[in-house]
Amino acid sequence: MEAFIDRLVWRIAHAMAILGGIVLVALVLMTVASVVGRNLNFLGLAPIPGDFELVEAGAAFAVFAFLPWCQLNRGHITVDLFLVRLGRRRNAIVDVVGNALMTIAAAVIAWRLALGLIDRYGYGQTSFILQFPLWWSYAASLIGAVVFAAISAWTVWRSLREATGRTVGDGGWSAGR
Question: Residue 177's beta-bridge partner residues?
């Protein structure tokens, strides 16, 4: 059962990162088209209306979509100056504490995003130009934040297994992949 959950966690994080990348590429292409439209207006081209609003919403989602993959691959910044001297077992304990703190932070972020979503939905706020409901971008970001919190919790479990000397599979993925 643990192997199944390990693989599932890796696949979910990978899918979120790919989705975030697709959104980011789409935002880049849209921004290029909008800039070209602004600069070639004399040819009948025009900028994309609301491009700033779309970039803001899409970039927020992309950031939250990348966080689970980063956490899973131990990609967050660490200071290894003194950790190198601690040895494998103590480093594993530090990992448990660090991952637990990251899980708490991720849960708080998800909670606050959920409150923001409820607030934006309740007030019916919309974007200025496109008039799309702002809660949409909160909802999209909340998906990434919830996955980030869940995967952070899984990394606590992974670190506990490593601290107790149990082997941990990587779900068929390797850290640099």
Answer: none
Segment 29-54 shows an average pLDDT of 91
Share of the chain above pLDDT 90, in %: 72
| Tens digit of each residue's pLDDT (9 = 90 or more) over 126-160 | 999 999 999 999 999 999 999 999 999 999 999 99
Q: Rounded to a whole number, what is the distance in angstroms from the first to the last CA of the chain?
A: 24
Domain ranges of the chain: 2-163
Tokens of 164: 């107790």
113-133 per-position pLDDT tens digit: 999 999 999 999 999 999 999
Annotate the chain with DSSP letters as a single string.
-HHHHHHHHHHHHHHHHHHHHHHHHHHHHHHHHHHHHHHTGGGT--PPTTHHHHHHHHHHHHHHHHHHHHHHTT-S----TTGGGT-HHHHHHHHHHHHHHHHHHHHHHHHHHHHHHHHHHHHT-B-SSS--BTHHHHHHHHHHHHHHHHHHHHHHHHHHHHHTT-----TT--TT-
Q: How far is CA 144 from the centre of its chain?
A: 5
